[in-house]
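If I may wish for something, please walk me through the protein I am sending here so I can picture the backbone:
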Amino acid sequence: MASYPLASDTWSKEEVNAILDVIESKKFTMGDKVKELEKEFANFFKSKYCVMTSSGSTANLIGIASLFFRQKNSLKKGDEVIVPAVSWSTTYFPLQQYGLKLKFVDIDLNTLNYDLIQLEKAITNKTKLIVAVNILGNPNNFTKIKSIIKGKEIILMEDNCESMGAKFGSEFTGTFGIIGTFSSFFSHHIATMEGGYILTDDEEIYHILLSLRAHGWTRDLPMNNLVTSKSNNAFNESFRFVLPGYNVRPIEMSGAIGIQQLKKLPDFLYQRRKNADLFKKLFADSQKFIFQKEIGESSWFGFSFVIKPECNIDRESIIQELNRNHIDVRPIVTGNFVRNEVMKYIDHEVFGDLKNADLIHEKGFFVGNSHQDLTSEIKFLYSVLKDLGEVY
């Protein structure tokens, strides 16, 4: 057992009872519990529509797909999409799978999100989509991003899988783009073990998502929808396919668990922010690390460390010491994703240099945060690094 784990269990008797209720109902695939969670999820984040999927990754997949099948201003193969150089793999893979050309832009060392100066410079008349990724709970500056794309026919979407509950201004992240995606994997802000969500205020996108999620068929579409005409003949509509879809449906147990978890989310967020206050206080005067600067109101997925370029510190020795003390530690997401071998399969270009992403790749790491009071764990982390001589 780790003295300071990356994540911890968020379940209690409510989630166990919710699972038992589903077992007794004999309805295991997507059903009434999923529908209830979708409604409550949309209401919580003040969005019109929510579609639940099997994971955050599949939320990204059908979210991107939906932008290809709308009637106006649809994406096309070969279109240019701007992405940050630091994110999770399945931010990028759906873009590649739909034939988009990825343009990688550097990130800001303080926020870990887009370098906004580089983002603005990277935009051309070929740019059709910008993917804003809110890293480790931290919002992007959406006032600036929306100012940059104002008057341009550029679609904005959010990968908000690490930042459930974060706010920029008075609005939740995941609601600034035409779609926003979320995850409820074990280590995230709420946990259904596997689960994803797409929020949108666009009714056509919502209907497209309903079809794409389940085989591309018409069965889950309302009678009056913006995808196709639909008859009252249930037999004919049961196996009628109108879009090249998938099976990325969530299971009913995930929906039932999610209903209980969403009720607890405000308390979870409160404790995560309280933990963050302690972390920031303890490390406030550190001269050797760059820490993530909060933009808006972070939901604090975890706590990042980036060794300052001028400090001659070996990251590996720190990792070994943290491991020896049973403190879970990970790279900051994927580091500079362009340095992965998989890039040979991705149509892409790099805008400018990625010096900040490279520094994170070589000198960055993060430790976890959770819904539990981590006072002792964070103080222990501080003492380990201080004893190692790697704080001041």
